[in-house]
Amino acid sequence: MSALAEQWSSQLVALNSADEGMPSWVGVLRRAGGEAFARHGLPHRKVEDWKYTSLKLLEARSARLAERGEAGSADESCAWPEALPVDGAPVVRMLNGRPTGIPDSIASITVASLSEALTNGKHPWLREMLESLEINRPSLAFSALNTSTLGDGLLIHVPANTDGGTLALQWAFDDQAPARLFNTRVTIRLEAGARLNIVEQFESPAAHNHALNLLTQVRVGRGAQLNTIRVQNEHDECALVTRTECDVAAEGYFETSSFDLGGGLVRHDCKPRLIGEGAKAQVNGVFALGGSQHVDHHVYADHVSADTHSGQFFRGVLDGRSRGVFNGKARICEGADGSTVRQSNANLLLSDHAEIDTKPELEIYADEVEASHGATVGQLDEDAVFYLRSRGLDEELARGLLMGAFCKAVLDQATNCPASLGEAIAERIDRALGK
Fold this sequence. Notes:
This protein is α/β, with parallel strands linked by helices. It has helices spanning about 1-15, 25-40, 55-60, 115-120, 125-130, 140-150, 380-390, 395-415, 420-435, and strands spanning about 65, 90-95, 100, 110-115, 155-160, 165-170, 180-190, 195-200, 210-220, 225-230, 240-250, 255-260, 265-275, 280-290, 295-305, 310-320, 325-330, 340-350, 355-365, 370-380.
């Protein structure tokens, strides 16, 4: 991977030499990101957090870094997927990691291009958020790379005591362009008492060989609530690396549910920090994989304040030579007394060649806490299959129903998921299991 890292580092020098009229502090951040990336390079198997995830797919592709603004401002060259049912919610289309336009129907909240927000200075909190990101560790190479190309992305702001409803983000790529790695930053801030639901869709209808490095920074204010749902069903040539860092204030709530049904190389990092008393976070996920698909979930819930709660609920079904990774960690810091942690990861292996690497972790430095974790790897219960067959179902249908129910348990964990959206996700799960 050193050759690819060197290629990207040399590109960064040229990319950051241009003056785009950005504030000086943006240039400082970009240089710091470039230096951190040059120092650590791309993560490899000896980096513990990347032990089970290889980046050979990216190495073989030798994709170049996309230049800022390379996505263009129109979407005529892109095939867009059929939109998920979001009950008339506004849809922001993200072409190659950049918004192609903000719908006029968005009124109660602010949704803006990040590049514009960086130059107009209308959001004084933005600088503090961007500068707070940690990048100086080998496992955070993609965060450093994202920072070194800071510019493309989205800003979302919900004022205090405002119900922002639902916002849909639809991601797609220009399948005619040469292979590129697009770096995108999304910043989300909910003021005290605010509410927002976000639905993300990664389902490119045409195969492409691009890669996306998506980094999302979130601030959930006191008593605010953010619910996100991500549906990912990309092609086997696609590489997707995401990281979500979320600070949750007192009595705030953050929930995210991921449904990974495809993708050649997919890595999700999620780090909720519960920094106020009574803060809560729930991280859910499904991966239903086949062929040589690879999905890696790393979750790190950090309990900083007392009486906080975090939950992790994941289900995996793997066939062929696919590989799933789940590393769920929760740390209860000193002083975070009265906190609770719940972790659950159950997996089904349908092939002798499929693999699941699961590792729940707990670090507890406080008293009077409740913590539980569980991880299982097995096969379908043959007694249950026999029971369904005795009721007149053929074997294929019986197994499909059991696997579907196994995965759809995650839908029950996703609060504020409309029935129509839940049905659409359930249908996608059934199709993925049918393959």
